[in-house]
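[Meeting: bench + compute handoff]

Bench side (C.D.) handed over the final construct sequence. Compute side (W.E.) agreed to return the predicted structure before the next meeting so the bench team could plan truncations. Sequence as handed over:
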Amino acid sequence: SGSYLSGFLLESTGTNLCLQSETLTNASWTKVNAAIAANTAVAPTGALVMAAVQGDALNDKHGVQQSVLLTAQAHTYSHVAKAGAQGWVYLENSTLGLRAWFNLTTGVVGTTQGAVIEALIEPFGIGNFRCSITFTGTGAFHTMGAFAASADAVTTYVGTSVNDIFLWAAQIEASAFPQTYVPTTTASVARAGDTLTYKGDDGKLYLM
């Protein structure tokens, strides 16, 4: 969890449980009716590092997914995404049967399905948005995925092998809201909690 004090966001410790968070071409990610092309769009960092989802010719879902062991508490799954030939992305927990759609042109949340506690979209610059869903884990492996969509509440379309959407910065964390992104490679990566030292009216130093 986090708290705000005089304009400061203080975040607790956290761990990105998702592997290869920026390398969607890696075998840690299952490609679902799509090819993944690396380094095809500019990320919020200004670097050409976002991956493109190129849907195949099937009338089906097109994207990537990963299975992650989650404890029985609130978790948040997020991706940075950008529109391509398709203007929507949906995030899915297929284990729990829940989804949320996000409009990558207008920056608004569309339909949610299943036990989604909250769905959020936040502008991240250069046409990018950070999209997230929060839900409760069950102490089991959950299959989490990000998929291109042709419209709100639509899961399938006929792909044409073009750059349908662009994805970057995947994160799955035990948190009730999206916290600061932590990149990963072959293992999960923890983030230290924030602390703030301030001087009170009595002249003493206090630690939050």
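W.E. noted at the follow-up: The first strand starts at residue 2 and ends at 5. C.D. will use this when planning the next construct.
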